Every structure is written in structure tokens, then in C-alpha cells.
Automatic annotation (TrEMBL):
Keyword Cell membrane: yes
A GO biological-process term: regulation of sodium ion transport
Organism expressing this protein natively: Drymodes brunneopygia
Protein localization: Cell membrane
Family according to the record: Belongs to the NKAIN family.
Protein name, per record: Sodium/potassium-transporting ATPase subunit beta-1-interacting protein
Presence of keyword Transmembrane helix: yes
Domain of life: Eukaryota
Transmembrane segments: 33-54, 61-85, 151-170
Main location, first listed in the record: membrane
Any Pfam family: NKAIN
Length: 205
């Protein structure tokens, strides 16, 4: 089976996957373990949706459509986290499962940011340590993370609409598909009836 329209060859699914991979790379660089796990699951679901589109598996596409709601909710949480909404703090270790004090990769590598290290050897108990300061950032890192999450929400909404469209197309094609003559107005097996005039002749004889 194959889709008879252009939706199966649409570049949208591959773009969704590229957006997820891009997000995963920057979260890996920042050792953000909770987003890393969420992104990994998201990539798996996107691949599943892509497989369903190519291999005519509407159920897989439905799973992807349901997942988009979860993905939107997760990204809304990330936005609230970095904007410190509802008692959340961007300086907490929530996204690293409290096993490290790493922050977003953008906190030190954002546009215009200059990273400086100052020796702490003169302070007791902090020998061989350095203090890292970041100055000159054109945009605070939390806003970059907010823009990342907002873009993911937009992609997810587009993906949801696309998934619904593909499922509807597959459903229409499946309804109109002729299952081995199942919709043939003439039966597959029938008895050839004799013409009426021939029956009359046999009766007369």
C-alpha cells in the first residue's frame, strides 16, 4: 500500500527530526539530563511517525499525534522553568536531577558572551579552583532556551496538523480500496443463466 498523494514524500517529518536533534545536541553540551531523556524519547516518536508515514501505518502516526500534546506540555514547563514562573528557579538543579550544578550551554556560549576565569588560590579551601564569570552577552541564556522551547511548540503544532491530515488521507484511501472485488457490483462467482427464449424452446420440445 502507498499513499496516493504527496504527503508521503513531504519534507516535514525529516525537518521535525532535525529540529529534535538540534535540541538534543545543545542539551548534551549543557549536561541537562532531564531534557536529554525527553529529547531522546521525542526523537524515537518522530522516527516512529516518519516510519508510519512512509510504510502506511496510521496507528504509528496517531501515536505521534498524541505525543505532540505531551511534548507541548514539556516545553511549556521548560519555558516556565527559565522564566521562573510558579516558584521555579532557573538556577536550581532540577533539570540535572540534582547530580550536578551544570546549567544551559548557552549560559557561557551565548551570542556575544565572553568567558573569564579568575584564580581562587588566595582564598582558603579554594586552592586550585577558578571563578568563572560571563560578561557581554547580547541575550540572556534563559531567553534563548525560551525561544528554543517556543520553536519546538510551534513545530509540534504543525506536526499535529500534518499527522491528522495524513491519517485522514490514509483512512479515505483505505475506505475506497477494492478488497479483492469486495466492492465489485458483479459477483465473483455466478451461474450463467440461459436466455429466456432458449428456455421456451426446450420446454416446447
Amino acid at each position: 500500500k502507498h499513499c496516493g498523494c504527496r504527503s508521503c514524500n513531504s519534507p516535514f517529518p525529516s525537518r521535525f527530526q532535525l529540529a529534535a536533534l538540534e535540541r538534543q545536541v545543545f542539551d548534551f553540551l549543557g549536561y541537562q539530563w532531564a531534557p536529554i531523556l525527553a529529547n531522546f524519547l521525542h526523537i524515537i516518536i518522530v522516527i516512529l511517525g516518519l516510519f508510519g508515514t512512509i510504510q502506511y501505518r496510521p496507528r504509528y502516526i496517531v501515536v505521534y499525534a498524541i505525543w505532540t500534546a505531551v511534548w507541548v506540555t514539556w516545553n511549556i514547563f521548560i519555558i516556565c522553568f527559565y522564566l521562573e514562573v510558579g516558584g521555579l528557579s532557573k538556577d536550581s538543579e532540577l533539570l540535572t536531577f540534582n547530580i550536578s550544578r551544570h546549567q544551559s550551554w548557552w549560559s557561557e556560549n551565548g551570542p556575544g558572551c565572553v568567558r573569564k576565569e579568575a584564580s581562587m588560590s588566595g582564598i582558603k579551601g579554594l586552592d586550585n579552583h577558578s571563578y568563572i564569570s560571563v560578561i557581554g552577552c547580547a541575550l540572556e541564556y534563559r531567553y534563548i532556551e525560551v525561544m528554543h522551547s517556543s520553536f519546538q511548540i510551534l513545530i509540534a503544532l504543525v506536526g499535529f496538523v500534518y499527522a491528522c491530515y495524513v491519517v485522514s488521507v490514509f483512512t479515505e484511501e483505505e475506505d475506497s480500496f477494492d478488497f479483492i472485488g469486495g466492492f465489485d457490483p458483479f459477483p465473483l462467482y455466478h451461474v450463467n443463466e440461459k436466455p429466456t427464449n432458449l428456455l421456451f424452446k426446450q420446454t416446447y420440445l
